[in-house]
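Example record for the data management plan.
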Amino acid sequence: MRRIKILLAEDSEFLAEVMKDFLGLQGFRVVIARNGMEALKHPALNSVDLIIMDIDMPIMGGIQATSKLRALGFSRPILAHSGEVDFQLRSDFRAAGFSAHVAKPIDFPEFVSLLQSLLPETQRHQPDTRFHVDIEGANSLL
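Corresponding structural encoding:
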């Protein structure tokens, strides 16, 4: 079975590596962009199955990048991830074209279930969800 390929747009190098390692353990292939502009220009953009997009990034944030991707015809799922979860921001996520939102700190078992739900049934697999990382705790180490 082909491994699902994810483009992760995340400006925190530490968080990007933690997420890449975790998702790799779950059977996903992950490529990284450091901001929304890099995500738009990433050479793997046309071959990814899903994008995970941080909201607050330098150069170009996730909402602007997602709006541009949707305007360009990108139709695959885009998952917002952010520490911000107020009602207005969720409305902005929907308007920009995000498929779903996950809040930081990330609960990895729920996160993997959400990723699976965004994929066509033929692409889903049964990942190992026993692994858990407290991202908020890890970020406090920085």
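Summary line stored alongside the record: DSSP finds six helices and five strands in the chain.
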